UniProtKB/TrEMBL annotation:
Its EC number is 2.7.1.180. Gene3D superfamilies: ApbE-like domains. It is an enzyme of class 2 (transferase). Magnesium. Can also use manganese. The lineage of its organism: Bacteria, Pseudomonadati, Pseudomonadota, Gammaproteobacteria, Chromatiales. It comes from the Bacteria. The keyword Cell membrane does not apply. Mg(2+) binds at residues 154, 275. This is FAD:protein FMN transferase. The keyword Flavoprotein applies. Keywords: FAD, Flavoprotein, Lipoprotein, Magnesium, Metal-binding, Transferase. It catalyses: L-threonyl-[protein] + FAD = FMN-L-threonyl-[protein] + AMP + H(+). One of its GO terms (molecular function) is metal ion binding. SUPFAM superfamilies: ApbE-like (SSF143631).
Length: 299
């Protein structure tokens, strides 16, 4: 059972727990702590369900079974098909930069702050097993070529935020839904403006001081997600290597902002856009400008 805490905030109640290796919180514009506790329990259970289903760290997860059965056609449940279909759209819209088959590169890249850089020879051995275009997906089945594997770490948490917000709103059928924010480790979504007209103030992580916020943005509806390398990187000969890897080359992206935050209607979309922007390197801002959405860059 996930440990839950509920605290009274300023004009709101905050429920907290941990999931997906992140601190998670539910901010609810109410003074009803019992209601917040019940909603936080639902949120924690849904986050745990999604984590168990799509974690690559669990041998019994759907994702692990998909990877273990690479080389043969596999029948999938509808939720998994929809999530993979979204990943396929991300791959197409990003011109192949957002690729959930590139997680295999973690075998040779360990972003632990050390100076252990992967060799080109090691990268060349893995590149043939990367590329979503090699995967076949239809309405019910998936064919993952032998030797390849999928990693949903780039979208699972954002998906969980969207699903949790949907679930919490469903608890108010026939009633007015209060303003609430679902925040999973900085990936968040708000359902509607607050009654008092104020904004939820959200801190953007400082890329040089990972536990501090460098600025705050106001959120009254929609989603925010941040992608950056403040916590995971390598450093060698004065060169910083980001953990954001280009799936086409196998090497970390260069000349990118240290952090990108994007605002959009839902969390799945903003997470994809923030990561894809970083993958553009020096062209990150031009990419974001072309999307016509609000964004914040930290360099």
């Amino acid at each position: 059972m996930t440990a839950i805490s509920v605290q009274q905030g300023s004009n709101c109640v905050v429920g907290q727990f941990r999931a997906m290796a992140s601190p998670c919180e539910i901010l609810l514009e109410t003074q009803d702590k019992a209601l917040c506790h019940r909603l936080t329990e639902l949120a924690a259970a849904e986050a745990e369900r999604i984590e168990q289903k799509y974690s690559r760290y669990r041998l019994d997860s759907v994702l692990s079974r998909i990877n273990a059965n690479a080389g043969s056609w596999q029948t999938l449940d509808s939720e998994t098909v929809q999530l993979l279909a979204f990943a396929q759209q991300c791959y197409q819209l990003s011109d192949g930069l957002f690729d959930i088959s590139s997680g295999i590169l973690r075998r040779i890249w360990q972003f632990d702050g050390s100076n252990n850089i992967a060799s080109q020879a090691d990268i060349d051995l893995l590149l043939p097993f990367i590329g979503w275009h090699k995967v076949k997906l239809d309405a019910q089945q998936l064919f993952l070529p032998a030797g390849m594997e999928l990693d949903l770490g780039g979208i699972a948490k954002e998906y969980a935020v969207d699903k949790v917000l949907q679930l919490l709103q469903q608890q108010f059928l026939g009633q007015q839904v209060p303003s609430l924010v679902v925040n999973f480790g900085g990936d968040m979504r708000c359902n509607r403006p607050r009654e008092d007209g104020s904004l939820w103030r959200i801190g953007i992580e400082n890329p040089t001081l990972a536990d501090q916020a460098i600025s705050a943005v106001g959120l009254n509806q929609g989603a925010l997600a941040t992608s950056g390398d403040s916590r995971r990187f390598l450093l060698k000969n004065g060169v910083r290597y980001s953990h954001i890897l280009n799936p086409k080359t196998g090497w970390p992206i260069s000349n990118a902002p240290r952090s990108v935050t994007v605002a959009a209607p839902n969390c799945l979309l903003v997470g994809m856009l923030a990561t894809t922007a970083l993958l553009q390197g020096a062209d990150a801002e031009a990419f974001l400008q072309a999307q016509g959405l609000k964004y914040w860059l930290l360099t």
